[in-house]
Amino acid sequence: MISRHWWRIIPAVTWLRRYGSRELSSDLVAAIIVTIMLIPQSLAYAMLAGLPAQVGLYASILPLVAYALFGSSRALAVGPVAVVSLLTAAAISRIAEPGTEGYLGAAVALALLSGMMLLTMGLLRLGFLANLLSHPVISGFITASGILIAVSQLKHILGVDAHGHTLVEMVSSLARGLERTHGWTLLLGTGATVFLFWVRTRLKPLLRKRVGLPPFAADILAKAGPVAAVVVTTGAVALFDLDAQGVAVVGDIPQGLPPLTLPPFDLGLWSNLAISALLISLIGFVESVSVAQTLAAKKRQRIDANQELTGLGAANIASAFSGGFPVTGGFSRSVVNFDAGAETPMAGVFTAVGIAATALLFTPLFQALPKATLAATIIVAVLSLVDLGAIRRTYRYSRTDFAAMAATIFIVLGVGVEAGVVTGVALSLALHIWRTSRPHAAVVGQVPGTEHFRNVERHSVVTSPQVLTLRVDESLYFANARYLEDTVYDLIARSPEVSDVILMCSAVNVIDASALESLEAINARLADAGVTFHLSEVKGPVMDNLQRSPFLEELSGRIFLSQYQAMETLAPDTIRRARAASAA
Amino acid sequence: MISRHWWRIIPAVTWLRRYGSRELSSDLVAAIIVTIMLIPQSLAYAMLAGLPAQVGLYASILPLVAYALFGSSRALAVGPVAVVSLLTAAAISRIAEPGTEGYLGAAVALALLSGMMLLTMGLLRLGFLANLLSHPVISGFITASGILIAVSQLKHILGVDAHGHTLVEMVSSLARGLERTHGWTLLLGTGATVFLFWVRTRLKPLLRKRVGLPPFAADILAKAGPVAAVVVTTGAVALFDLDAQGVAVVGDIPQGLPPLTLPPFDLGLWSNLAISALLISLIGFVESVSVAQTLAAKKRQRIDANQELTGLGAANIASAFSGGFPVTGGFSRSVVNFDAGAETPMAGVFTAVGIAATALLFTPLFQALPKATLAATIIVAVLSLVDLGAIRRTYRYSRTDFAAMAATIFIVLGVGVEAGVVTGVALSLALHIWRTSRPHAAVVGQVPGTEHFRNVERHSVVTSPQVLTLRVDESLYFANARYLEDTVYDLIARSPEVSDVILMCSAVNVIDASALESLEAINARLADAGVTFHLSEVKGPVMDNLQRSPFLEELSGRIFLSQYQAMETLAPDTIRRARAASAA
């Protein structure tokens, strides 16, 4: 009997015990398809991160095994992905020059830091931190990153040198290089791009309608487009010796399994990379969980967010110790894995074996692979991340959310990816504090003929000139505590005849220490002004909390169970008037 | 006729039009008392900030006039205060050495930056940013600052040299200097301290009970204690030539009105000081508004928080242009001003005239004033800021609030004042996000014999095995959107027989764009799992917003006006069972 404790840390224990031949064959088929798809992606995203091609392969071996052991999703396929590779490039190019030993070391350190952060968050159940990334910020970030990545790859399509981290820098650098465009490279690059676009948009309907393939087979064949592009363009280069003509190729990739690497233990480097690692961790986690939940829901399985943190953390640590770079769950390859019938994370282990075999045996085949083809696969993949519809929808739905989204997009494009995310998060928080710092609050009066009390501005109600009742439709906490004070002081400054103020707490679920201090201040200041302060309809848990403070003893007035009872006691005349109004 | 527009920017226009001889005499009396109290405070807080004594006087002249014109409080007395002086010292000692030209310039630049920030926040109505400072963080910060300030002044009482920014540094530096304690200084310093403590704790009751003075007169006389200490110890030094014996004195203070200074326009310096200026602005503002509201409430007057930002901004800019340092509203001197009968901000203008006369004529009198006396006034003043009771109350009331408070105190004492505030704010936000990221949510069922639906775990209710209803007691926004998704997916993963899910929105006041995306994801994923998704009891404004999105068209199920109607339509059997249960 395996103890429950073990199961919690290593979910693999559960599914491995029921692993049979049916699962084996399903997982094998899925793994073969994902392996074929993952090879060009691994090489391409390593290039995007400014790293040697083999690093992409290394990041697609051990991390998959680690995730299979510790992750909670049955179908998630981890490995290098576009957005995280862009963030990696942004972070480590601040530290070292691409192509140097230091650059590679920084990539490994980044994977290690990110892995340790994810693991820590998983163990301490800090997954809620990902909530800081609101949907508009994430969506704006992904769209802007997609544009930035696509533009950054144009230099490979044109066969020119270009640099820059912002859109303006990249475009102006490209424009300066335009006249040195390399003909053969351009031909291969645009050919591959047009072909991949055609595959993506036209081939699938064609295969389904004309050839009559079932949807998932059509989908998988369409996603094999990059493999065809790789084979054809590599063949062309090899056949016509185009690399001698100046077509940039991937070149020699060392043959062999990933080396066991000890990540650099350098506190200076680590503190330099800490913020970047945190951003990569959170963004990778949010994207990955979203994919995993989409797939799990289809089979009514569940994803444990904290277990996902552990799984992704283990994957990144494995990446660091095998010469890789930061990884996370990829959207399109997870969908392929799911559609191809993967039953358990064993499919990931088989994929890792496939990539390991590639690294060991087949790397010479990629020697003549043009970089322009990899750039074309990246461009076509990331342009599907650009979601202009989401921008329009957000604009129509909420201007404050749109403000956070627009700021994220502009800062990502104009300043940098990290600054963009940080700005977006800060702005989301500030807008949230602003929004909740002025909760809906209303002066209420009695609806004649009932025991209900409603907003005086919306309903025809009976009020007392001496007893003023304020209802606040929100929990009271630090962001709105001062607003509550302001509102009460304003009300009594405007109504000199008021002798009693009742705060109706029917919608108050929490009163935190700041709000408690504000209530104490309101009580004391109203007493100074000769006004008695009461509460009504305080919920049970809130009352329990208040009893642990001296507020109830200091309160100048009383706590009433119901608002009606409060008015019966403090303003019996008004109750009588309401009765008369209802009789009339 | 003065236009309403003018009135809004310069509140002084309103009260000046009704200014008469009654107001004049009240304001004059209050001004004389406040001037006498403010002189030693100005000198002391300049010393605390590491600045020459005259800078304290300069900061108590033009800023008072500027506040009188632009502020909204009738009784607030602005000028140098302890906590802001400590923050000033912490900020500018990073930039330059005390006693240098650069140190003075940095103090002036800090006042200018802080003034511009306050003014900008006032004009853009950004006062809500002060809500980021929760009560526990402010209270912890003030207590820790009080301790830090008191310890920092011990060196003046002992007459030794000591340095350090953290409690440990200060105490160990003091301990090393202890053997060089200067006898005469120690005598004067402890004498003044003991006297001031006696005045503060014993004199007032004595004056009231034995002498029979009215409360406010006793209070004001007790607060004149520092003046007596200044007069007596200065006299002693002058008489016995104690400065020649090694007692440190204030020394020569240049005679004259504040010079018109142009604050250094140095973008490097400004960006170095920006965060410090922001903290000083927010903390000064929060403290000042709290004092102003306490006093205004007593006369049922109102404080406009945004106008207060403008007033404090103007005061700090005036300080910068007259060679001063950051100022804000002081608690004890505002109370004295109010109790002494100040009717309008004109009292502040008269106080400014009094301090200007002092700067012009009487500075030679302070030549022999021992620094130990100033240190004693600071120590006695700031120890009243230390509120250990608040720590205990917060601990009993809420552990999360206490965590934020404790972190603030430890970081202020152990690392520094600015790091303490930033940590406290970050922790408050994180704890708030954590708290609201898991709103109260309940599966509900029908209470037999009623149309009410209640939590299945608390009430005996009737539920349907096919139709599951979830009620969330919180607005849906980015911090809890993913929790909502998790909760729904968990529920359907655990209940394979469920065919319909109803989200009961009776407590949802807002659905932001993140929550909308989550609802769309829930809808799509439930549809994948063959489950229909419905909403019930959606509030009017929330519905208006949803209509601006494609969600309502995509929704697999329906929107029901009431939960009862939803169950009538989707699970008529259950309604019948509930009727039978109530009949039985």
TrEMBL record, chains A, B:
PROSITE patterns attached to this UniProt entry: STAS
Membrane topology: Multi-pass membrane protein
Gene3D superfamilies in the record: STAS domain
Keywords for the protein's UniProt record, in alphabetical order: Membrane, Transmembrane, Transmembrane helix
UniProt keyword Membrane, yes or no: yes
SUPFAM superfamilies membership: SpoIIaa-like
Chief location: membrane
Transmembrane helix is among the record's keywords: yes
Stretches assigned to the STAS domain: 457-570
Compartments in which it is found: Membrane
InterPro entries given in the database record: SLC26A/SulP_dom, SLC26A/SulP_fam, STAS_dom, STAS_dom_sf
Transmembrane segments annotated in the record for this chain: 28-47, 53-70, 77-96, 102-124, 136-154, 181-199, 220-240, 269-292, 347-366, 372-390, 402-434
Name of protein: Sodium-independent anion transporter
